[in-house]
């Protein structure tokens, strides 16, 4: 039966691209809502690489971000990590990454998940006209961002969590609690490693 399903139905996989500096509950909720509402097979979190020139106090090493993503998704068997951008290093265009993935896995339909704040910028993305033919964009509504776009986007209504990585970093710097805003192991890792402090 599984073999039949594999030949008949294409696999549908959601890609959650981001810096995840650090990953937070907003990322997890949006990924789960897209997974379940669209009935996808899996969601892969895809951290971007840290460009060499970046101030590591602001964007910490990819290795640490990957570790925190892995810790965040450990309890969900439908969540995984896609490491191709981290392994390639430098700045990756989503178009190049998704073209490579699609060539490696022609049998997979990719759903590229973005927050509502990103949708307005789609016209500026590298090779966007080709990218929208390569992947199906999924937009997740986020507070106070416009939702108009000339590109085909599936909109998913999810509980709006007013959490961002910027907010998490600011709270850490100010000595405020981030418990229940990030997964428990992420809060532990940030504290033990002294991340995001001045
Ligand atoms: P930063 O504050 O550093 O920009 P971020 O919270 O936006 O970080 P990213 O890693 O940049 O996190 O985001 C990855 C993706 O998740 C982006 O598409 C972003 O729009 C989306 N996203 C992040 N937080 C939320 C949220 N609370 N609700 C909906 N989408 C979100
Ligand atoms: Mg952001």
TrEMBL record:
Residues 15-171 form the Cytidyltransferase-like domain. InterPro entries: Cyt_trans-like, NadD/NMNAT, Rossmann-like_a/b/a_fold. One of its GO terms (biological process) is NAD+ biosynthetic process. Pathway: Cofactor biosynthesis; NAD(+) biosynthesis; deamido-NAD(+) from nicotinate D-ribonucleotide: step 1/1. It catalyses: nicotinate beta-D-ribonucleotide + ATP + H(+) = deamido-NAD(+) + diphosphate. SUPFAM superfamilies: Nucleotidylyl transferase. It comes from the Bacteria. It holds the Pfam family CTP_transf_like. Keywords: ATP-binding, NAD, Nucleotide-binding, Nucleotidyltransferase, Pyridine nucleotide biosynthesis, Transferase. One of its GO terms (molecular function) is nicotinate-nucleotide adenylyltransferase activity. Its EC number is 2.7.7.18. NCBIfam families: cyt_tran_rel, nicotinate (nicotinamide) nucleotide adenylyltransferase, PRK00071.1-3, PRK00071.1-4. Belongs to the NadD family. Catalyzes the reversible adenylation of nicotinate mononucleotide (NaMN) to nicotinic acid adenine dinucleotide (NaAD). This is Probable nicotinate-nucleotide adenylyltransferase. The gene is nadD.
């Amino acid at each position: 039966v599984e073999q039949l399903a594999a030949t008949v139905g294409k696999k549908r996989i959601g890609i959650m691209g981001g810096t995840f500096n650090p990953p937070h509950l907003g990322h997890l909720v949006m990924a789960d809502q897209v997974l379940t509402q669209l009935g996808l097979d899996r969601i892969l979190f895809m951290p971007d690489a840290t460009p060499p020139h970046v101030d590591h106090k602001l964007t910490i090493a990819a290795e640490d971000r990957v570790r925190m993503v892995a810790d965040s998704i450990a309890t969900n068997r439908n969540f995984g990590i896609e490491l191709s951008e981290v392994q390639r290093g430098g700045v990756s265009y989503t178009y190049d990454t998704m073209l490579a993935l699609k060539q490696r896995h022609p049998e997979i339909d990719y759903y590229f998940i973005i927050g509502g704040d990103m949708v307005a910028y789609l016209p500026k993305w590298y090779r966007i006209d080709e990218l929208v033919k390569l992947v199906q964009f999924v937009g997740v509504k986020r507070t106070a961002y416009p939702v108009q776009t000339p590109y085909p986007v599936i909109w998913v209504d999810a509980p709006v969590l007013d959490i961002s990585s910027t907010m998490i970093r600011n709270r850490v710097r100010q000595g405020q609690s981030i418990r229940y805003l990030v997964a428990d192991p992420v809060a532990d890792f940030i504290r033990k490693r002294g991340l995001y402090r001045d």
